Amino acid sequence: MQPDVVAHIDEGVDIALARLDFWHFCLYYDPEFFEQRPFLEDVADILQWVYSEYKQGISRKVGISMPPRAGKSYTVSIFCAWWLGQFPEKSVMRNTCTATLYAKFSYDVRNIVSTKKFKKVFPKAQMAPDKQNLAGWNLSTAKQVSYFGAGVGGTIIGFGANLALSDDLYKDMQDALSETIQEGVAMWKQSAHNSRMEKNCPEVYVGTRWTRNDEIGKATEKGQLDKTVVIPALNENGESFCDAVKSTEEYLKIKADTDYSIWLAEYQQEPAEVAGLLFPLSELKFYDPSQVNINRAEYKFTYVDPADEGGDFNAAPDCYLIGNRIYIPSVIFNKDGTDVNIPSLVESICTQRIENVEVEGNSAWILFGKDLRGKIQERFADCNVRVIKNTVNKQTRILAQAAFIKNHFYFRMDYDSIPQYRAFIKNLTGYLREGASKNDDGPDSLTGVANHFKSTLSHLW
To answer: pLDDT per residue over 192-214, tens digit each?
Structure first.
C-alpha cells in the first residue's frame, strides 16, 4: 500500500475519533501542545462528560482550576468549537472578567472553527459570512447566535445559551478579595449570566481558586459542582506538575518571590483564606449549649459597636464569664438601623440582666450611646453603661487581640441555625489578616470585649 494512501487512512481514523471524543480532537487539532501536556486529558475528560450527559438530557456543573499558562483557557476555547461542531444549531455563552479578554476568547474560538482541521472533522459547521462580529457570531446553521458573551458588567441581551462558561471572572487577587467586587460580580452573574441559560444548560466554571467567596469558590464550598479538576503547580512531592509548563526550579523561584497567599491561590489552587484569614473557623473554640449552663456565669458583659442602615453591621455580642472562659450565647448582628436595634439592645440587655455594657461612641455615635444608656437604666438601674472612644487604629486593635479571642472565647456550636449568629461567624471567619475585608464589625466588636476583660479581670489570664 502506498504511503500516501496509508496517511490518508490514518487521517480518516483520526478525524473519526476526533468527532467522537474531545481528547482525540485536541490531539488531532494541536498534537505538539497536548502531547506535552498529558494532564490536560483530565480537563478533556470532564468536558467530554458534560457533553455526554447533555446528550442524555442531563445538565451538569463542573469546575476547572490550575496554574497560569497551563492551557486551561486554550483547551476550553477548543471545547467551545468542538461543542458547536457537535451542535451547530445551538449557542455557547462564555463570560470573563473584561470585555478585552472576552474578545480575545471569541476571536480564538472563531479562528478554530475556521481552520481546515476543524472543517474536516465537522464539515457542516460553517461560519455565516454575514455574522462574524466578535461580540456574537454565527454558524450558518445557528438558530439565534452561535457564540456570545461579555466581560463582567457588560450587557447580554436577547440571547439564550445551551452551554454556559465563566472563565476567570476576576482580574487578579486584589479584585477577588474585595467584597465590593465580589458582590458586583455575584449580582452581574445572577442577572446577566444566569438569566441567559436555556433549560438544561450545562455550566463550566473556569478560574483560579482565589477565595472561598468568589463565584467558583462559593460553588465549590456549597457542593454545587458535580465534578472538578484542580491541579496545583507543585505536587505532593514538591515537584512541578508538568515540566512543559514550568520546571520545579522555576516554580520554586516564583514561590520564593511571591506573597504566600498569592502563591497558594494562583499556583496551588488553595483559596487565599488558607493563609490570609485571621480567624479561620478551625482555630475558633465552640461549646455545646446543651452541655454548658451559662446561668452560672460569674459576670456578664455586652459590647456594642453601633451602625445605621448602610454598609456596616450593628454588632453586639453578649459575653458570659465562667472561670476564665468567655462564652458568647447570643449576639445582635444586622444592618437594620438604630430604630430597630436600640429597642432590641434594650430588651436583650435588660432581659439577660447584663451587668456592664460598653458602647463604642466615636464621632456622632456618642449620642447613640447616651440614648441607649438612658433607655437601659430606665428598666434596669443596676446595669452600668459606659460610652467609650477608640483611638487606636482598628486593624491594629484587632491584630493585637486576635490570639486572646482565639484562646479564650467560646462560640455556640449551633450558630448556623441562628441567622444573626451565623452572619456574625461568617463575618468573623472571613476577616483577612491584611485588613482588606469590607466589613470588620464582628472582629472589631470582639476586640472591644477582649479589651474590657483584659483590663478589668486581667488576673484571670
So the answer is: 999 999 999 999 999 998 888 88
Residue 296 DSSP one-character state: G
Say how far apart CA 434 and CA 456 lie, in whole Å: 29
Give SS3 for 63: strand
Task: Judge contact between 173 and 210, C-beta under 8 A.
Answer: yes
Q: Which residue, among 216, 156, 157, has the nearest Cα to 182 in the 3D structure?
A: 216
Distance CA 186, CA 175 (A): 13
Q: 366 and 348 in contact (C-beta within 8 Å)? A: no
Tell me the average pLDDT of the chain: 90
DSSP element (H, E) containing 5: helix 3-20
Per-residue CA distances from 112 to 83, 142, 424 (Å): 12, 17, 50
- Please classify residue 223 by burial: count the beta carbons closer than 10 Å to its beta carbon, then call 0-12 exposed, 13-18 middle and 19+ buried: exposed
Q: In order of start, what are the domains of the chain with their CATH numbers?
A: 38-275 (3.40.50.300), 281-460 (3.30.420.240)
pLDDT tens digit sequence for 17-59: 999 999 999 999 999 999 999 999 999 999 999 999 999 999 9
